[in-house]
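User: Round two. Same drill as before: sequence, then structure, for each protein.

Assistant: Same drill it is. First protein:
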Amino acid sequence: MWVITMKRKIYQDLLDWKNQNLKQSLLVKGARQVGKTYIIKEFGKQEFKHVLYLNFEDQLDLRKAFDDMPNPKEAVQTLQAFAITQNIFTIDGQETLIFLDEIQLCKRAYSLLKPLTETKRYRIIASGSLLGINLHGDYLDPGPTVKHLEMLPMDFEEFLWARRGESIDSVIQLIKQVAFQGEMIPLALHSTFNQDIKDYILVGGMPQVVHQFIQTNNLGEVFLAQEAIVSLYRSDIQQYQSSVDNKIKTLQCFDSIPHQFAKDNHRFIYSVVEEKKTARHFGNALDWLERTGNAQKCYHIDHFRGSLMNGKGTMFKLYMNDIGLLVSMLGKEYIYRIQNDELGLFKGALYEQLLAQMIMAKKEKLYYTRFSDYEIDFLMEYEGAIVPIECKSGGNTKSQSLQQYIKKFQPTLAWKISSNNINGENPIMLAIPHYLFALCSILELVKLHPLVKDLRSTKQ
């Protein structure tokens, strides 16, 4: 029987941390159900002799013990005593990984990270799903002794690893090699990867959902798994938001996300959430969703003086952290529509969400812009230059907005992402399929560009 493995790119970050000195502990942040606990446990099992696992959500006795902890010395003794019950007789960092899960629920344990790390004796990873907040909605700051890592849902490449096995790497490298040679991707591979993109839209990148899809190949089971995660997010809002009023407003904003994309202009409009209401009425609701990792703002760029950050305006779009969860929030009927390519106008919005997730996976912030009657879906920066990106949902790749942007702002690079094969005939605008954009790093995408190739060959 084939065992489904969930290989994650963050594993290399964990390994890099282990191979460095003992000056820092590690804090892994991310939304619920993105796979933090699984990958950290797997890392501990592979790289250490022992894993001392504490979960402050389930182990209330340990949470209470830490809440009453007077000093770091007693914390060490408590960890040692608990380790003995797990048949672990040393918590020294050379042999044992100390894993403190859901640490946002125990402020005292959080505050003890700094002094415990400064002893340079222990290897500690802390993790939690709501680390952007605590029970009172305040920020938690562990200080410079703790290194931060952000974990997102599985990206498209990780989805392929789980679905096809790691042997897919050789096929991915073949596709890149063909693209770098300026040739079109072979039709059979192009069609297969386009289908994988379609499946990724339906399933998303939540490991539990991906596992269910691979194990059962049943979209009904996938939908139920997605619904359970969305329900968990709603439950978190009800449990952890600071007041009854804020709970209601945050739930309203969260549930409005699919409706924001059901209109021609995908900008987040508060009156869609509740008629005649403005940003002031909803207070910290959207910030709460961002800080928990459940959603991400994509800011409008008002001007191009300096970096994108300098031009950031107040208007924004709001994307879910995972496209599969967005599909489930749309409702059961959308699974059929996606499967049979009957989405109509909403298809463009869904592929925008897809591209937003791909950009976030590259650790980039989300920006867009409007000028005159045109809109550029996304903007990125590379070595000080702004790169416009237009997202197309299918094979119809007319790109009037992108052409007008190129005419007005004269960028050196522009990317048009669609389901069509790669096309580098335009000296400025590189057309590439969704899957290739997902599988390439930003540097690789730049190197694919025909103008960059011409400049490189001229210098040789």
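Second protein:
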Amino acid sequence: MRRVLICLVALLYCALAQAAGIDSLKSLDLGNFEITRIREVKSPADLGLKNTGAWVTGKPVVCVEVSAKKGSDSRVKMNIALPLREDWNKIYLAKGNGGLGNNTSADQAYYDALLGYAASHNDLGTDDWQHSPDLKSVIADFGHRAIYRTAIVSKKLIAAYYGEDPKYCYYSGGSTGGQEGLSLAERHPELFDGIAVFFPVTNRTRLHTRFAYERKVLAPKAYFTPREIEKISDAIVAQNRGNTGEYPEKDYPFLKNPERAKCDYSKLTFLTAEQLEVLKKIHDTVKDLHGQYITVGFVPSAELADGGKSLLKGFTGDWIYPMALGAAYSVPDVTFDGDLKKVEDLFAKDSNALPHLENFKKLGHKLIIIQGKLDTIVPAQYAKEYYDAVALRNGGMEKSRAFARIFFVPGMWHGNMTNCNPLSYVRNWVEKGVAPQSIDIGVQYKANRYPQKVDVY
């Protein structure tokens, strides 16, 4: 009886503490942001979600929705999820968005809270951007400001709810979410102890110029079938199997070093002369009307990556050029002289990540980047250029590896990474001082999964 009474008292205490924590959130001053909803979620069903596995517990999580106030210069929305005090691991985890970043939902943060993290997820204030009266503010939020403001708001909520600050703060995200992570390391190095990003966008304006170039080349008609695209990729892999340091064919169907691959177009006899000319243009670097280099070319053997998009229709998720050029934007008519200047004038300052990580380094914080060598949405050359610039500013590769490490993964593109948790590597580095010399990672290539151990660059 005494034991039952003690348990009841403990439950009552937890319930009162929970209620007090929620009450402390309701009166919190968040500046230009406000809490629009607080709810205690006791199961995934409360969010309209299915129970997705044995790891999903029935422990309550407080889910908080936050929006920019009307009349402010932002339209960002946030979801913050807070586990009970006894379930909290003392860590704040922010997750990045992808693509245009125009949506957020409570489940993104909720699942991380079930793992013990005080977690956040946010949109980038880009929903219905076409009708925003202040496009420059939208671009600032998209480029770097939304995730910064989310981190500030989230830390205020955490401190109010738990009565203490988190012991560690981490960020993880890919693609546009990778851009957000790099912007945090550059602009707000004090906010996160560790940042883990994968296939990050570094040079947003030149990347979208690559998108526009591909679509311009492919605009007139459909030049290739999916089967032809696969044959092109397989043929280029076969042509380069004898290169020094390559994987044996029996082990991997892709190249270890596709960045060194060459294509002998004369051996692609299954293609027409017209198809060969289009393929050469897709492989080529992007140049202006005077033949001057603008941005990267296409890695031979990556043709089937990302659904073969670079030989089908190109990447259709280009919002940068439409934002900058408005109604005047037309894929066949776009130029990489005057039009590119308009794009860079509008976007470069807020959306391009700069390799200025000296303050991040001084604070002892850690950065891990994972990049696929076959990525055709965010080609590996951008990440290489970014990291090489970081190394140049910090005394070379060895000194840069003391705080920032990058791993280039063969066979990996934008959506086929398997069996890898980038967050675990950066946590181990921050909390235990163990810098990863290599990572274990898999890729889904055609119908099979291929595990690899990838060494640091």
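The first strand starts at residue 33 and ends at 41.

User: Perfect.
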